[in-house]
Model the fold of this input.
Amino acid sequence: MDDRIAQHLDRAAATASAHAAVPGRDRQDAVARVGSAHHAETLGLTVSKVHEPTGLFDRRYEPSMSVVLRGRKRSIVGDDDQVWGRERFIITPVDLPVVAGVVDTAGEQGFVAVVWRLDPAVVGEVVASMTVPAGAAGATGSPAASASSPSGAVSPLPRLGSWTAPLADAFARLVGLLDAPEDIPVLFPLVSREVVLRLLQTEQAPRITAALDGTGVAVVAGATALLNGRMAEAWSMERLARELRVSESTLFARFKEATGMTPAQYLKRTRLGEARRRMVVHGDTAAQAAAAVGFRSASHFSRDYREAAGGGCGGGAGAVGGGGSGVDDRTLAVFRCGIGTRDDDVMTLHEAMIEVLRENAAPMTSREIADMINARELYRRKDGRPLPAGQVSARARNYDRLFIRTSSQINLR
Done:
């Protein structure tokens, strides 16, 4: 890491550590930090400090910039699994479900992190005022990381951002306002715009601007709002694009670039997180929670958590209640621990078709089958794109020992 960047981040770490809320501290210490918490909220900052590694938990992030100033953490977004520290930062441009936890606390100093809430109005204002387009140059003045290669292929945008000295300096001054609350009314509007400007001059600019279309309407934010607000409904790429009045290809590309997930992956992670919250907070049985968030069956819900990572968190599953739901103790234990999953048990296409047809108990069109498989993410194409109806028709034709085809519908033999 560049010495200048290290000095700026050291300064930010010292300030953040002094103002962080530390779980387990006594009441007197907590009262003394009420003022710091108020100023942090004014600045859009969430400052945290822990002295022991944590497990992995489902978390939801608002549009924000996440920074680890001491220690290291693990973050899982879709298929992207990263362990990172202060040499990087993460931009979350839309409301996003993330599995994350602290893996290294930097010894006695403790793990220190800051999340800064991004204001879409400020981002839009800065983008509109820039004379050089956002992301036109990377950290070293070279083309941005997502630019096309000589062969014409587009390089993938890295999930983790790289610091520049101007960005680290501006961010350190933003955190430094915690030490000078009397300056916040004057300096915060200026420093916050500078931080956004410096972010838009890094390779992460496309991740911020990907959520906006030419008219400033947040297509990706609109999609996440629909999926969060109506998660129990059966969503398909076609239906989601129709609701947002954009093409499926545009929605898929923007959503994937902004979130690192397909809409189906996002919906699945959102449902799992909400189901866990219902079981832990409201005491729902697994079957009740699964039905409330849109899972078609308790067995499907159980399968999604069967390959959960980790364990040994102590305590039985009974506290959240199985109630004869058909979901095994392993799944319930996963919810008590708050541990996320990786989707390593996705079905073959004909297995997914069989499950959908069995549950429907009636003939279905190839489009209906494809929509159901995509909504529940029972099958994953290698290119990551949604399953088309034509592929379902072809599979039914090739597996005529399993399926009966009529002019418009498919059923099981």
About this structure: The domain at 1-205 is CATH 2.60.120.10 (Jelly Rolls). The first strand starts at residue 45 and ends at 50. The CA atoms of residues 65 and 91 lie 5 Å apart.
